[in-house]
Design brief:
By secondary structure, the chain is α/β, with parallel strands linked by helices. The chain has one domain: Rossmann fold, CATH 3.40.50. It contains six helices and 15 strands. The chain has helices at residues 40-56, 69-85, 96-104, 142-150, 185-196, 231-239, and strands at residues 8-13, 25-31, 62-65, 90-93, 118-123, 127-128, 134-135, 152-160, 176-180, 199-202, 219-224, 244-247, 249-250, 256-260, 265-271. Helix 1 (40-56) crosses helix 2 (69-85). It is globular and about 55 Å long. The relative contact order is 0.18.
Length: 285
Amino acid sequence: MKLRGFVTLARISSCVLTTKGLKPSHFCVLRRCYSSDMDLITQAKQSAAFQAIDNHVKNGQALGIGSGSTIVFAINRLAERVQEENLNVVCVPTSFQSKQLLTEKGLTVSDLERTPSLDVAIDGADEVDKDLNLIKGGGAACTQEKIVASCAKYFVVIADHRKDSKLLGEQWKKGVPIEVIPMGYVPVIRAIEKKLGGKAVLRMGANKAGPVVTDNGNFILDWKFDETKDWKKVNMEISMIPGVVETGLFIDMAQRAYFGMPDGSVTFREKLSRNGTPESDESEK
């Protein structure tokens, strides 16, 4: 694997998940030096974002670019590399936020009509479990994020250390985001609570009167679950409820997740194939 800008590299374990029925993952720690005036969480987010961009982006690629606070650092680093290395890349954003940032940085923006196949998608997450299952949608863009990730040959997640969990719900307490058609939000709430328990609530806007409205003109429910679930089954059950557009459960989609640490180091976890080797990203070769 080609690594840029790091002063130390230490392998922690090549096989850390041995629980019956779970695929093992791969861990490494990498360290990048930053100025001391950057707050620790910001430093952690930037570390993860920079490492993902440095490891997975190369000339001639079509990239999926996600949404959220950590993606801001990824776009900044991508713009630096495009300028410094004269890279020719095309970016498909997952939200108005990321499209605006890409445009401001002078990066080439496309969409899935013109660029339906992506080499790599890079996005943040609200939580990542030990099997690289994700909760996403804290920024109300889970539908576009899932569509873009599904179009990529390789899906990379970037986050700070607070998002790294053994089980979903361990760190993230705001529930699973679910995008719904506005007229159906009450029946969807009733169906989710009846089928799966817990509590589903309509997400309200922080700086506006009324609910959060997605880029697609829909509402967001946040479903707070009360116990560990079979997430693949839950995702399917919620998706089948009339009125549901998409869930914030990303199951068996991510191949690698980078976690920035407060000291500037980065750990990563990657999905292993059935023969015990990491699922490869051609851009790293």
